[in-house]
Amino acid sequence: MGILTDFFIATPQEALAADLRLGPASRFPTAQLKSVEIVKVLQLDAILGDHELDFDRMMPLGEKTTEGPWLFQLPPTLVDQLAALSDTASVEVARRWAETPEWAAEPGPSRAAASTALTAIRTIARRARAQERPVLLWLSI
Asked: In this structure, what DSSP letter does residue 62 have?
């Protein structure tokens, strides 16, 4: 059993007002993934932004609980970079992302998993930018 990680389009206020215990997919445009947790998202942010890993770039929304689910807003610059990422450039980004320790520790081919995840997140980022809305991340165990 892995971590459920849904990337979805909503404002923090909309998400916090919704009942998201079972996930955002029934209420918001969502990319449903597994095991793309905070560290992997921040590694992608570091690769695209050409900076060091920065844990302060994603702050939790709502109540802090130990049981989850947990909610975060992606940094707007990350959403912009994902939305603007070309198909050609995404191949190299996916390769670099797959080589990070967290992806390498996953069972199965990490490059294929990272590429699939990147494609899904890019799609949500493009939709969000077209609507001028944020992208949120919902995590549950």
From this structure: S
Instruction: Answer with the residue of higher pLDDT: 114 or 67.
Output: 114
* Separation between Cα atoms, residue 81 and residue 90, nearest integer Å: 11
- Find the mean pLDDT for residues 15-27: 91
Start-to-end CA span in the chain (Å): 8
Helix (H, G, I), strand (E, B) or coil at 107: coil
User: Domain limits of the chain?
Assistant: 4-140
Average pLDDT, the chain: 92
CATH tag, 4-140: 3.40.1760
DSSP bridge pairs for 4:
34, 140
Q: Using omega within 30 degrees of 0 as the cis cutoff, is the peptide bond preceding 69 cis?
A: yes
In this prediction, residue 13 has a pLDDT band, given cuts at 50, 70 and 90, of very high
Distance between CA 21 and CA 91 in Å, rounded?
A: 34
